[in-house]
Amino acid sequence: MSSEFHRPVLVREVCEALAPALVRAEAPVFVDATCGGAGHTLAVLAAYAEARPAGPKLRAIALDRDEEALAEARRKLPAEVELVHSSFGHLPEVLDAAGVTAATAILADLGVSSHQLDTGARGFSFQVDAPLDMRMDPSRGVPASQLLADISAGELTQVLRDYGEEPDAARIAAAIVAVRPKTTGVLAKVVAAAMSAPQRRKLGLRIHPATRTFQALRIRVNDELGELDRLLAAAPERLQVGGRLGIITFHSLEDRATKQRFAALTRAEQPPAGLPIAARDLPRPRFVVPGGYRQGAAPGDAEVAANPRSRSSRLRVLERALP
Ligand SMILES: C[S@@+](CC[C@H](N)C(=O)[O-])C[C@H]1O[C@@H](n2cnc3c(N)ncnc32)[C@H](O)[C@@H]1O
Asked: Is the C-alpha dihedral spanning 134, 157, 174, 164 positive or negative?
């Protein structure tokens, strides 16, 4: 296991994106929806203290569905930061329980932490043979081994296609249901043996043949896209006017969902055909993507060199517009 819990990505970009909201709020509230090892929370707290040394106190609420992450965060964060064991799909309930109607800044850094991947016993990795679990919150839901014990080849093919974009989905799914693996090592071997020679060649020596299958199962076991949809539905409505939502995505499925939701929220209404209404007389969209964030923010070369995991990351930002 690596000694570092998790190295956060796009830290400067996150602070720069959320600062304009935090520095102008009268009663600023920051919600880190994916606290992990608290790297982003600590950075945002420090950036706020520097930007507004005499400003109002920043209330910080950090949630994670993984209790190991919360234990790590508790060690690192000031006692007044409120930690909540919850998935961000329940953001409205978390905010209601905290008595927060609307937050000034909300951040979600999607996916798994290095700690989760590197802790072999959690069953996320094909590097170590361990029970096939893959739950970010092991106190809830069904482990990957149980999913593979019950799933049909057809449904598994769909999971591998939809969440792993796996070209060999059907043959890999057939091989998996023939064995119904219970450990990461067996699953990795079954996938490697089932993959067609052209696909193996395409992946080369550096990418393990089971990479896409592991990603697909992890997304399914943790209902990651369902969670993201619930967050994208609720979080914009729980922003203060001028408040900002930042989402860090790591793969095309997450990025597409986020981009499409932000586009729908920021689209200006068109005048109804044939009616003499000028576009300027229609209500303005309640949300905007702030200038400079149309394509999101991506890591620079230095960050990618220092932290290869950041390569595919992208920060997308949405702001609740002034009425
Ligand atoms: C990429 S890490 C975040 C790292 C964090 N930003 C940091 O600076 O250390 C993702 C974290 O989000 C948590 N997580 C993923 N999906 C979640 C969800 N739906 N609800 C709450 N936490 C979630 C994971 O358990 C993990 O700890």
From this structure: negative
Q: Check if 14 has its Cβ closer than 6 Å to any atom of ligand 1.
A: no
Query: What spacing in Å lies between the alpha carbon of 230 and ligand 1's midpoint?
Result: 15
> Do the Cβ atoms of 226 and 192 come closer than 8 Å?
no
- Distance of alpha carbon 35 from alpha carbon 264, whole angstroms: 27
pLDDT in tens, 218-228: 999 999 999 99
Residue 317 identity (one-letter amino acid): V
The full set of domain ranges for the chain reads: 11-115+225-320, 138-221
Q: At the top level of CATH, which class does the domain 11-115+225-320 belong to?
A: alpha beta
At residue 2 the predicted structure's pLDDT band, cuts being 50, 70 and 90, is very low
3-state secondary structure at position 103? strand
pLDDT top residue among 228 and 271:
228
Mutate to test the pocket of ligand 1, among 113, 139, 303 (most ligand atoms within 8 A of CB): 113
Average pLDDT estimate for 115-131: 93
Confidence of residue 233 (pLDDT cuts 50, 70, 90): very high
Give the mean model confidence (pLDDT) for residues 148-168. Answer: 97
Is residue 1 scored above 60 in pLDDT? no
Phi and psi angles of residue 84, each rounded to the nearest 5 degrees, phi first:
-130, 130
pLDDT at site 322? 85
CA distance 117 to 207: 16
Helices (DSSP H) in 165-239: which residue ranges? 169-179, 184-194, 197-203, 211-221, 224-234
CATH code that applies to domain 138-221? 1.10.150.170
303's tokens: 């960050």
Which residue has tokens 């071997």? 189
